User: Fold these one by one.
Assistant:
Number 1:
Amino acid sequence: MILTASILKDLQYATEKGLKQLAVLIDPDKFVEAEAAFFLKQLPEKTSHILVGGSTAEAIKTSLSVTAIKAETNLPVILFPGDHSQITEKADALLFLSLISGRNPEYLIEQQVRSVEKLVKMDLEVIPTGYILVDGGVECAVHRKSNTIPIPQQEVKKIVHTALAGQYSGKKLIYLEAGSGAKIPVSQEVIRAVKRAISIPLLVGGGICSGEKLSEAYTAGADMVVIGTAFESGNFFTL
Ligand code: 1GP
């Protein structure tokens, strides 16, 4: 759904209207540019956004992937970077992530400051995003790379307070992340509680690998669901 020149505004509008969004996450490290057209053709019809990023992808590989994707689709392409080096102006927007569930200054502010030199020269929509890592039942790349501890899913109040602290700090989106390849996706209880508390769009990802899990996340209140691993191997489940 592209209504305005702003991806954030479109997402806010969709959230207000209850129109659920589906983002497919592409990890440049696992993406073959020559197969971009084939991959994109297989995407579910409901796909609304493409996210590009990974914990370890190199800058040049990210840029090549975005270029190949943009050549084959009109869907908005949003960067979901593992660090500041992955930022490229070839994309339409950037999730300007702060890992607010962690207490590592490197991912709370250092990477963000380092990205500014590039960003001021780019025409990239920057979307302030509070990124909350919850325990998905398996050690994930974000956990390893950021050296931060995911919040246990039983600590619903802490997760809600973290999300609200993000909103009060001016974040425009909250992303609840169980980690790529999570065994346990973000629970309906957590999604419901966060959605009830915040008034900004809620993204949910990690371990969503079936139509049933996707519906559960939507029913609980996710405004956008992000799916990566399930589609990486070409196993596009029916939605
Ligand atoms: C990871 O939330 C995304 O950052 C997607 O996770 O790869 O498990 O779908 P999956």
Note: The beta strands are 21-26, 47-52, 77-79, 93-99, 125-133, 173-177, 202-205, 224-227.
Number 2:
Amino acid sequence: MTRAHLDGIHAYLSGTGYHVPERVVTNDELAGLMDTSDEWIQARTGIVTRRFAAEGEGVADLAIPAVEQALRAAALTVADIDLIIFATTTPDYSAPGSGCLIQERMGFGEIGALDIRVQCSGFVYGLSIADQYIRTGTYRHILLIGAEVQSTGMNLSDDGRDVSIIFGDGAGAVILSATKEDRGILSSHLHAQGKYAKDLWLELPSSRRNPRVSHEDLDAGRQWLKMNGKEVFRHAVVRFPQVIREALDANNLSIEDIALIVPHQANLRISQEVSRRLNAPEELLYSNIHKYGNTTAASIPIALAEAIAEGKIKPGDLVIFAAFGSGFTWASALVKW
Ligand code: UT7
């Protein structure tokens, strides 16, 4: 756990931005590809539409407009940024990381570019990493991106219907900047439990195999994202409240002190159950899953940018980010705005 304090140098979020691909995919469109329905998807997930990237569009493409917005909001330029952290489960290439692509394409110079995985928890893990660099005085401004193109890794047929109705594509970005003021990241809390790795996983391409993907593998559908939805759900509704309480306890706060929780947008039913278990009103957990589905590492920064644009976060507010996903991994961060 990162300890809570805002004395000395620490990180605050100086700018946010997001970008989603143009193509809107409705539940009815999916129902034309697989045995599902708008009614089933809305009732089980709260999702009405999601966005799919255009052919050839990768996470670096989606991230660039989000980064431009975040830089503008922070009144900074690429020359001010000291490090890029790129959280994605769906990088443009297996190697090198998408952070390197952004660095080159946006003209960041020779600053470090670090890709992190951590799936749905990637953004919160990235926030924690950035905060450590800033607290040690190593860097002043860090760009953190969460971006995903899930649509190309999903089986859009009957066999994949339990997974592919949930996920969507998109990108969010924040700038973390050094400050000594009474605002910023109070604490962050990171967890993982690898024994559940195969309950939400994308097996191939795998370095355990040569070739990493064979024609037989493709025929068997081993290149698609697989999820044991019930097991993920069961753990998510326990881990979200647990890691939110951990953040509250670390800062001697109670749920009534919190202005907004921006959770990973996993499934509307998960958020509703989490608010029930926290004895909190449903509106305390920000939700935009109806528009974008579950965008993995991108969901929190997209939701944050929208919550700010809607005036839901004011200076001085206490905000919690919380995530749960593949790994299993889960994490939270408490931020004073
Ligand atoms: O980002 C974090 C990672 N992911 C999550 O947080 C997702 C967590 N899990 C979930 O959100 C839910 O488990 C799902 C939305 C994926 C599935 O909802 P569920 O209520 O757990 O459904 P289920 O898997 O228990 O399936 C219920 C029924 C089954 O039929 P039978 O066996 O009752 O006849 C499924 O075959 O619904 C069927 N089903 C579908 N029907 C229509 C499964 N997928 C679909 C579908 N459309 N797309």
Note: Residues 36, 40, 44-45, 120, 161-162, 165-166, 200, 229-230, 232-233, 236, 266-267, 270, 294, 325 surround oxa(dethia)-CoA (CB under 6 Å).
